[in-house]
Design brief:
Largest sheet: none
CATH architecture: Orthogonal Bundle
Helix content: 55-70%
Distance between the termini: 19 Å
Number of strands: 0
Number of domains: 1
Strand content: under 5%
Amino acid sequence: MKTTLWPRTLALAGLLQAARLAQDLARRGQTDNAAFAASLQSILRLDAPSTEDVFGGAAGVTLGLTLLRDQLTTTTDAGHVEMLRYVVALIQLERRLSTRPDMLQRIGEEIQQIESRMQFFAGQEDFAPDSAHPRRVEKLAELYTQTISTLTPRIMVSGEHGHLNNPATAAGVRAALLAGIRAAVLWRQLGGRRWQLLFTRRSIANQAAAILKELNRPEAA
């Protein structure tokens, strides 16, 4: 049975997933490709009819749901603490963004223009509509730099110098952070608040486990 916590948990899963994607890219230079594509697609679905549709279905945030289930109540692992630091920073930035209707409008307009330009690549053999096309990643990263990155406090991503100096990897990090902002917007719209990360972690983790169980349930005959 779906409760009001179900869509909120999906949005928070999208937020954690984006933070982990940025972390992985910065530290390892690679990440979960399917999760990365789903997170980037969520940026483009501005008028999706439901939370699940934002991510192309609950399966689109499987990585984030797994993080919620397994790590939300754990605070001792250094990598997990770093990821949660990104999550909190994204929530703070989203709150700043919510006071800037001019920037919100610009972001929406730019996203539409990015997708219009992407139609140019649709006829090419190597183009996959559900993939993170390098050109799309580049443009989303530029949008992040020109908008979200001008707000304070800026997110300082830690990682390996070689990866962060790689233009494609750095663009991936910024695009993932933009996806995190998208998820943070959704989470707040659904009633999510930062204090819930402290006081309702167990309920959220249990809901994430229930969603994952539903995703893994065999289709009824």
